[in-house]
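ok so i was messing around last nite and threw this chain in just to see what happens. nothing serious, just curious
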Amino acid sequence: MSSSPLPSAQPSRSAPHIATLILMAGISALSMNIFLPSLPAMTAHFDTDYGLMQLSVSLYLLVNAAMQIVIGPVSDKLGRRPVMLGGTILFILATLGCLLAPTVEVFLACRMAQAVITVGIVLSRAVVRDMYSADKAASMIGYVTMGMAVVPMFGPAIGGVLQQSHGWQSSFWLLFTLGWMILILCWFDMGETATRSGKTLIGQFREYPELLRSPRFWGYSLACGFSSGSFFAYLGGAPFIGTEVFGMSAAKMGLFFGAPAVGYFLGNFLSGLFSARFGINRMVMWGCIFNGIGVSLSMLVFLLGAGSAISFFGFMTFVGVGNGLSIPNATAGMLSVRPHLAGTASGLGGALMLGGGAALSALAGALLTVDTGAYPLLWLMLISGILGVVSIMVVVRRERQLGMA
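result:
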C-alpha cells in the first residue's frame, strides 16, 4: 500500500498520507483490545470481580459513543487537524492515569477518558469523505480500515505476551508510547481537509435532525451498528470463553482472539476492490450475510457436541469478513446521505454503533458463566447479524421508492 498523500480533487487542501490515516484509526482500535488478555489478571490486581473489570470494555465503548456525537460537529466547526491533535494529547494523559490508578474506580474513570482517542476513527473517515465521492470513498475507507485492521489484529496477541512477561501495565505503557508517536506524526503530516462550516457549535448540533429524519441514514447506521454489534459482543465475552470455558493461557487466548481481525483484513481488501464496481448496498448486504453464516456455523458445531476453542475462534473469521464488507460501505453510505455534514454523520453514526456495541459487550459479560458456555454470546451475535440484514433492506427499499436504485 502506498503511503503517498491522498490525491485530492481540491488541491488547496493538505491531505494526510494514507499511512497517517491508518495509524490514526489503528491506535483507536488498538486501545480497545490490546489489554483484553489481561482482564483476569487485572481483576486479581484490583481485587474485584470479572463483571466489574469487564466494564473497562463496555464503559469505554459507551463513552466512545458519546464522544463521537460531539467530535463530529466540533470537527466540522473547528477543522479536523486541531481536534485530532487535542484528542491525542488527552489520550496520552488518560493512559498515564490508567497506569497510576490506585483503585479499580480510578482506573475505570481514566479508562473512560481514554475513549477520547476515538477522534482517530471519526476523523480518518471524515477526511476520506472530504476528498472523495460516495462509491470512491467506500473503496478508500475499505483500504484505510484494511490497513487499520493490521494494527489491532495482533493487539491481543501482543497484549497476551506482554501480560505473561511484564504484567498488565505493559500494554498501557505501549499505548502511552504510541500516543506520543501519533501526536508527532499528525503534527507534521496532517493538514486540514475540511471546509469549516462557519456556524456555531449550537448551530452544528441543530443540524442533527436533518440526518435523523433520513431513513437512509438510519438504515446505513443501523446496518453498520448491528453488523459490528456481533464483534462488540465478542469483545465482551470471548476473553471469558477463552480463559474460563476453554482454559486457555493469556498468551494463547490473545493469539486466538485475533481471528476476526484476519477476516476483517480480507473483508476490507474486498471492499477496496469491489465497492465501486458493485455498489455499497450490495456489499453491505453480503457483509451482514457472511456475519450471520459464521455465527450460525459456530453454533451448529456446539449443538452437535463438537464445539472447541478452534471451532469457536475459527468461525469468528467469517464474522470479521462480514464486518470488513459491511462497515466501510455502510459508513460511506451514512456519510454520503448529507455530504456537507460528513463529520457530524461520522460522529453520530459511530455513536449509534458504539452505543449498541457497549450494551452488547456488557450483556455478553453479564450472561456468560462456565455452565452456559458460549451459547449466550453466540445468540447475541446471531440476532445482531440478522438485524443488520433487515437494516440494509430498509435502505434498498427506500432508494427504490426514491427512484435511486
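not much to say yet. Residues 18-191+199-401 form a domain with the Growth Hormone; Chain: A; fold (CATH 1.20.1250.20).
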